[in-house]
Amino acid sequence: MYQRSADLGLGVPFNIASYALLTHMIALITNTIPHEFILQIGDAHVYLDHVDALQTQLGRTPYEFPEFVWKRTREEIDETGGIDGFRLEDFSVKGYKSHESIPMKMSV
Q1: Is residue 53 assigned to a domain?
Q2: Which of 7, 82, 92, 107 is most buried as measured by Cβ atoms within 10 A of its Cβ?
Q3: Nearest partner of 50 among 107, 108, 96, judged by Cα
Q4: How far apart are CA 78 and CA 28, in angstroms?
Q5: Is 71 within the bounds of a domain?
Q6: Can you name the residues that pair with 45 across neighbouring β-strands?
Q7: Can you tell me the distance from the alpha carbon of 17 to that of 25, in angstroms, rounded to the nearest whole number?
Q8: Total structural domains in the chain?
Q9: Domain range holding 83?
Q10: How far apart are alpha carbons 6 and 39 in whole angstroms?
């Protein structure tokens, strides 16, 4: 994926999660195995009012990655409309653990 402009504090984490999920959705529908998600950024930036929050985040020790699990099979999802047949309850994340939130305001 190419992203022209990227807010590293708020936008990029959301973009990585959403496009990685889309990659898994497409792989399931096409009966392939997702291998990697590659993000290319044109203008990566950190807003001044995010610096302290991001320094806090960088000082934390990451937890183990959770496991992503499909609740329905490809055939079941395909019967309900293919790529348009996904429902919220199709997605399951096991073992997710997070640190306390770090507030960051939306900069404009």
Answers
A1: yes
A2: 7
A3: 107
A4: 10
A5: yes
A6: 7
A7: 12
A8: 1
A9: 2-94
A10: 11
